[in-house]
Amino acid sequence: MKSKSKTIVYLIIILILLIVIAVKLFPFRHIEDFYPQQQVSSNVLESKRNNVFINEYEIYDIKQFDSLVKFPIKEIWLEKNWEIKLDKNKKIINEINESALPLLVCTLNPDTFFNENNFLKSWKISTSDERSSIGLINGKINIEFINSVPDSLQLFIYKENGDLKLKNNLIKVASFKIKHS
Fold first, then answer.
1. What's the DSSP call for residue 44?
2. Whether the model pTM is above 0.90
């Protein structure tokens, strides 16, 4: 009987030591380590659920210069700038950054060459507004503006030519305009 008790005590000690070693090797991390600071919603519906939705943009005047390429943009909306934080009780919350300008967010049609995995590698998007910067957050294209968000905007989609010897290696495949819905 004493032998079994000793074995159980040893196993408990070993388990505690393993837990201590694991915590030292893999320290607990903050929620901010798992989520990028800035967030965007996955679609218009989620943006509304997150209480960050401002308005949807209508896509119009689509011009495609390559008939083999499917138009990649599914929807565009404007939402408040927000991030995921922990409140005092360590509960995950969405915190809206009221001082930052809102973001235009684009979702992509899933069955096109243009996706978040090859964005900025094989294709890019640009705007007619030089005061904007375009990036990728959580797999969604976002457009941030320096001073104010325009009511309407023209956007251009380019893909790589494939000939890396060319100085300008991009081919315009589409242009389109957006405006408040």
1. H
2. no
Structurally, the chain folds into a number of domains equal to 1
Helix, strand, coil proportions of the chain in percent (round to 5)? 20, 40, 40
Give the residue, 154 or 2, on which the prediction is more confident.
154
Q: Is residue 133 part of a domain?
A: yes
Alpha-helix runs per DSSP H in the chain: 2-25, 31-34, 44-49
Q: Is 156 part of any domain? A: yes
Residue 120: HSE in the Cβ half-sphere, 13 Å Cα cutoff: 9
Mean pLDDT across the stretch 13-18? 86
The reply to whether 130 falls in a domain is yes
Among 110, 108, 111, CA closest to 157: 108
Q: How many residues does the chain have?
A: 181
C-alpha to C-alpha distance for 46 and 79, rounded to whole angstroms: 11
- Range of the structural domain that residue 39 is part of: 30-180
Section 148-156 average pLDDT: 89
* Token pair recorded at residue 122: 């094989």
Q: What is the dihedral of CA 19, 20, 23, 25, to 10 degrees?
A: -110
Nearby residues of 86 by Cβ (< 8 Å), 6 or more positions away: 30, 31, 32, 92, 93
